[in-house]
Design brief:
92 residues; mainly alpha; 4 helices; 76% helix
Length: 92
């Protein structure tokens, strides 16, 4: 069950970024296509949260939007860090 959760955490945000990038102009808030592309590979949840925050009425990241972006970054780092710590335990 834990493997399915980890696989979903790795796959689902990337699928959403890819679908939004292909079928919508949601990532037009970024100045270059390179940021969503890098976000797809390294931090997809943070990329989605940042784009969502920039689509807010204020068009900036502060207050509650900043909290959401920070939580998304922690989620991305937790998924990456959790896999690395398990790998280190298996090698022992």
């Amino acid at each position: 069950m834990a493997c399915l959760l980890v696989a979903g955490g790795l796959f689902l945000p990337r699928l959403i970024v890819a679908l939004l990038g292909i079928f919508t102009h949601y990532f037009s808030v970024f100045s270059s296509f390179i940021w969503p592309l890098l976000g797809f590979f390294f931090a997809p949840t943070t990329t989605l949260a940042w784009a969502w925050a920039l689509h807010s009425p204020s068009h900036s990241v502060h207050g509650f939007d900043l909290v959401i972006v920070i939580l998304a970054a922690c989620l991305d780092l937790g998924i990456i860090g959790g896999g690395r710590s398990r790998l280190a335990r298996r090698r022992r």
